[in-house]
Specification:
- This protein is an alpha+beta fold.
- It has one domain: Electron Transport, Fmn-binding Protein, Chain A (Pnp Oxidase, Chain A).
- 22% of the residues lie in helices and 41% in strands.
- The protein has a 7-stranded antiparallel β-sheet with strand order 2-1-5-6-7-4-3.
- InterPro entries: F420-binding_dom_put (IPR019920), F420H2_bilvrd_red/Heme_oxyg (IPR052019), Pyridox_Oxase_N (IPR011576), Split_barrel_FMN-bd (IPR012349).
- This is PPOX class F420-dependent oxidoreductase.
- Keywords: Oxidoreductase.
- It comes from Phytoactinopolyspora halophila.
Length: 131
């Protein structure tokens, strides 16, 4: 399995919106804009249990996560792999991501809202650097 390059790791670590592509049950792609972070060679995002991307990933854990440098249109990275899920850190991670992207806590969670962290270990890495 490939490890993240310094370039890819630096993009995923920045507060840049990324997008996640998952597969719907009918085989068509479903894209979502997400907050991202990186832990070593693992890219992560967070969602609420029951949302489309979470449901689709439970059925088919194949996922692609991409980010584009807003300062350099030809500087980007995309990882594809298999999603793994953790719920024990879901609330902590969404607040950490909120601080990274907005500088503030995430909104108050609804009483029945449960968060899940989705981690993607790269099986494929494609990137381009304009530097």
């Amino acid at each position: 399995m490939p490890t993240l390059t310094d370039h890819a790791r630096s993009l995923f670590a920045r507060p840049i919106l990324g997008w996640v592509t998952v597969i719907r049950p009918d085989g068509s792609p479903h894209n979502s804009v997400v907050w991202l972070d990186v832990e070593g060679d693992t890219v992560l995002f967070n969602t609420a249990i029951g949302r489309a991307k979470e449901r689709y990933l439970r059925e088919n854990p194949s996922v692609s996560v991409s980010v584009l440098d807003p300062d350099h249109a030809f500087s980007w990275a995309s990882v594809s792999g298999t999603a793994t899920f953790t719920t024990d850190d879901g609330n902590e991670v969404i607040h950490r991501l909120a601080h990274k992207y907005t500088g503030a806590d995430f909104r108050e969670l609804a009483e029945d809202e449960r968060r899940v962290t989705v981690r993607v270990t790269p099986e494929h890495l494609v990137e381009q650097s304009s530097h």
